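Late entry, written up from scratch paper. The run itself happened at the end of the previous shift, but nothing got recorded in the book at the time, so transcribing now.
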Amino acid sequence: MSTITATVRERIQAQGFCGLDDNTYAQINYPLRLSPAICMVWAAVGTALASPMILWALVPFAALGAILPGHPFDVFYNYGLRHLLGTPALPRYQARRHFACALATIMLIAAAWGFQAGMPMVGYIVGWSLVAAAFVNVSTGFCVPSFIVRIFFGKMICK
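Output as recorded:
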């Protein structure tokens, strides 16, 4: 049985994943970071190359993460890696995780537009800000968009 700290459980719950036992939280802690990691690397490449095309190509994936029950990149884990690891499927996204994907979509659009419109500073600032926020989530499990929601709507209370 895996162990999980109160901090890790709270960070996962802050993203809207409630009602799971500690073993499940421990097992999904790192898999929940796979989609943000893929987005982070893709956005970093697009930003480093100042490529609106690379960033525009990521926009539909981020947008689908905002509207579907899970992120399209979760497929790599849910239908592949989890079977190799013997771990559970990722739970359905709730409002806070959808918000994170929606915010990433807006930031990708702004960065891509900045590069495309000849305003590279806008592209760099927004693009690297997105990469930084994703890096925080990937490296620590702390979700910046979920923290923003917490400021306005309060702490996520899981029952």
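Residues 9 and 25 are 6 Å apart (CA to CA).
(Scratch paper discarded after transcription.)
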